Amino acid sequence: MRSLCNKFFRLTEDGISKWTPIGRHNKRVKNLIIFCGFSTVICSAIWGLYYLNRWDLPHLSINLILVLIGSIILMLAFNNYLRCAAIIMCHAILFMVLFASLGDIPVDNIPRSVHMNFLPVVAATFLIFHREGIYLRFVLPIIGLLLFLAVALNVMPIPSSVLAAPIEGRLMGVWANHITGIVGVSIVVAMMQSSMNARSALESDMRRAIARGEYHFHYQPQVDASGRIFGVEALLRWHHPTRGRISPLEFIPLAEETGLIIPIGEWGLRTACAQLTEWSKSPQTSHLTIAVNVSVTQFRQPDFVQEVKSILLLSSAAPSKLKLELTETALADDIDVVVKKMQALKNIGVTWSLDDFGTGYSSLSLLKRLPLDQLKIDQSFVSDLLSDKRSLAIINTLIDLGQNLNLAVIAEGVENEKQLTALQSIGCLSYQGYLFCRPLPILVLNNLVVGEEATGHIRYQSSPV
Ligand code: C2E
Ligand code: CA
Ligand code: CA
Fold first, then answer.
1. Among candidates 113, 34, 21, 100, which has minimal Cα distance to 63?
2. Atom of ligand 1 nearest to the CA of 439
3. Assuming Cys at both sites, which of 81, 139, 156, 168 could form a disulfide with 9, CB separation 3.0 to 4.6 Å?
4. Which ligand is nearest the CA of 252, by number?
5. Rounded Cα–Cα distance for residues 131 and 82 (Å)
6. How far is CA 378 from CA 8, 118, 197, 314, 351, in A?
7. Residue 436: Cβ-neighbour burial (10 angstroms; 0-12, 13-18, 19+)
8. Pocket residues for ligand 1 (CB within 6 Å)?
């Protein structure tokens, strides 16, 4: 529930680095919303005072409503509810500009001007929602543009009505509307430009990062019912020379968009296999498996199977110790091709885990066809497990499903003992999460595994390393 709320209200979680594309985008969106909120409040308050002075109640009310909308937008933006603020802002302003255009009836020497305010909203929509779904990304700005054209070209017949603004204020209005329209569009265009520059700078940094050895893995232990570490998940980290640590959640989406995920993914497979070879030399670590996240773009490469095979061959790592994690998005492709690729690697001993399980749309018949070994219950269900009965019911169903299909089930994101007890009681026997261990640098992990081998189990560790 909490994650659903955050998804709707916030563009991303708080605390994201201001240097990353997402962090910077959020900062830009926040500045834009604050600019728009303040200009709406100030302009409407000035016009409100003007109409109050003339005791023109219809226009006074429109401007009071706009002051209220602007204040709500500002309040949401200051509390970081950026997505919600942006959606309200774009819809409300389009509607209010349309409404105000009804009173903007042109007369001799005083052209129509309120519609100029459609333009900054349309431009802002393109900037803010470029990663969103089709409605926010395309339909909403197109509606704004069509409204602009309809009013500007007078396609939309506007009857002279009681809403017609007084002639005395019109000339001032023409100036005010042109200024807000042009300044607004200029600000959004400047932001788009700086967004493109930042993106291309980060892209070239990402490209160079492989050669400069700035990527590394942190390994998060996966434990069985007795608390023993049987494997780890390799989680990518990027230590940028000037910007510091950057989380994969922030740069992987850009790597996916630019195709850089392919060389990064290949680096990840090579690193994980080299680590498996290293571990195979010691009896204390030779039992460990490594789960590597495979992005959809990487999996879609026609030579993906061949690439994994040759990396395994060159590193001499045991294929059975390599686990590949795929998300349900990969299953949306031609399923025959997906099964063929998975089966080809399974034939040589590589195992497959379905990541973030429960958040996608894979059906039972689809799951039956896939040569999977493990289902990984998404952490959103685990985090809501104690507060939301539906999450418990979903986890129960997923575990039953795993048992019926003869697949191992692992829960990720286990953060406290209550969640662990609840998971144990419904038959989930493998876990990964902060309760056991945060993702660790390789040296710390090796020490932990060696210590664990001596005591037989891992100490719970709920504090960050
Ligand atoms: P994921 O595959 O679902 O990885 C699990 C994420 O949950 C990791 O975040 C991990 O640090 C975090 N996590 C683990 N235990 C807990 C817990 O108890 N509570 C909470 N709240 N979080 C926990 P991380 O490392 O930031 O990775 C985020 C995502 O980035 C991963 O999600 C994965 O989709 C992607 N990713 C990471 N490494 C790679 C990689 O090498 N290749 C690709 N393609 N994607 C990667
Ligand atoms: Ca994963
Ligand atoms: Ca996951």
1. 100
2. 11
3. 81
4. 1
5. 14
6. 19, 42, 35, 33, 19
7. buried
8. 220, 235-236, 247-249, 252, 265, 268, 293, 295, 355-356, 379, 412-415, 433-434, 439
Bridge-based pairing of strands 215-224 and 229-240 is antiparallel
pLDDT band of residue 105 (cuts 50, 70, 90) is confident
Cβ atoms 33, 199 nearer than 8 A: no
Q: 156-170, 366-380, 400-414: which has the minimum mean pLDDT?
A: 156-170
* Phi, psi for 306 (deg, rounded to 5): -60, -40
Cα–Cα nearest to 379, from 423, 331, 442? 423
How much is the pTM? 0.74
Ligand 2 midpoint to CA 233 (Å) = 7
Which residues, chain by chain, have CB under 5 Å from ion ligand 3? 355-356
Ligand 1 centroid vs 133 CA: distance in angstroms? 24
CA angle 379, 380, 384 (to 5 degrees): 115
- Residues with CB under 5 Å of ion ligand 2 are 293, 325, 355
